[in-house]
Amino acid sequence: MGYIGHHGVATLRRYKYSGVDHSLVAKYILQPFWSRFVNIFPLWFPPNMITLTGFMFLLTSAFLGFLYSPHLDTAPPQMGSPCSWTASLPLSGCDALACAFESLAFGSTAMCGKATFWFWFISAVPFYFATWEHFFTNTLILPIVNGPTEGLMLIYLCHFFTFFTGAEWWAQDFQKSMPLLGWVPFISEIPVYDIVLCLMIAFAVIPTIGSNIHNVYKVVEARKGSMVLALAMLFPFGLLLAGVLVWSYLSPSDIMRNQPHLLIIGTGFAFGFLVGRMILAHLCDEPKGLKTGMCMSLRIFHLQLQMRLTARLDDGNPLVDEQLVLLMYCLFTVALYMHFATSVIHEITNALGIHCFRITRKKA
């Protein structure tokens, strides 16, 4: 099936990327570094290959975490004390998948167990709302403290910190990991990673999505549009989250605890499809409102509901093994995303007469 119509092709030819990064770290440290570092690449080296290379490093990190901590175990071990569309679409697609793989890598490092899903959640929600905001404002706005800069730096620091303290530091009760603050009420017996999760939600996720909604509201009001139609574009993502949470709650084998890798990878690719579909709608200037095609990644959830119904009729024995359904879910979302990515790349490169991973020489 095709994803881009004639109107979309005409719009792509006029599209110009717009973004603003207010981060002081990016302005005074990272951007000067990037300006110098980019010179090591020859002019014939396409920007998308740089993005793909960076994504491969992230996959390697998640894979190594899988090898050395295959179950994201939470039980502390017995140890001693311790530009254009060519930039916008591929980059955002890799970033959407990076939410899943970086969450898995950090979950392995910090022994987060089933809480690993919630670390994916706090990275995916702001990402989706930022993409939604970009759809309406036509400009990607990164605040003075944002996930792509300070958020990633914080994750890297946590990885290095764990090298010195050991992974059990995150899984222990707060009073054991930080005895000087053990007197603080209500949190002394809560694992450190749970406290970090709550702090991130309170001071990062909620303010960020509040700002996104406010910015979209101002644009919609200025254009005399419908805020209901704008909010409808969040429905597929909300349905994805609801489907996964209901599935995990009803799961007889507790898939969120026992199979976090497959669950997060499958959900991460479904999320990548939703993000990619919204970005493509923005690039092609599609009408604002609910995109029913985005719900394709949610089709397999009805199978899980049927399993629960058949289990009730057969003394708790589901018609299909849940591990098999989870594997099917993961394979389906990966295949759907790969079909979307390859189809869109093929359609755009053919329409514009360019290459995705090769710079086209201009005719003399």
Strand content: under 5%
Could you tell me the radius of gyration in angstroms?
22 Å
- Tell me the major beta sheet: 2 strands, parallel
Overall pLDDT score: 82
Q: For the largest beta sheet, what order do the strands appear in spatially?
A: 1-2
* Tally of structural domains: 1
Order of helices and strands: HEHHHHEHHHHHHHHHH
Count of separate DSSP helical elements: 15
Shape: globular
Low-confidence stretches: 73-83
Q: Note the gap between the termini.
A: 36 Å
Q: How many DSSP E strands?
A: 2
How would you briefly describe this protein structure?
With 364 residues, the protein is mostly helical. It has 15 helices and two strands.
Structure description:
The chain has one domain (6-33, 45-74, 81-352). The chain is 67% helix and 2% strand. It contains 15 helices and two strands. The chain has a two-stranded parallel ribbon. The protein is globular.
Highlighted features:
67% helix, transmembrane helix, transmembrane, mainly alpha, two-stranded parallel ribbon, CHOPT, globular, Choline/ethanolaminephosphotransferase 1, membrane, 364 residues
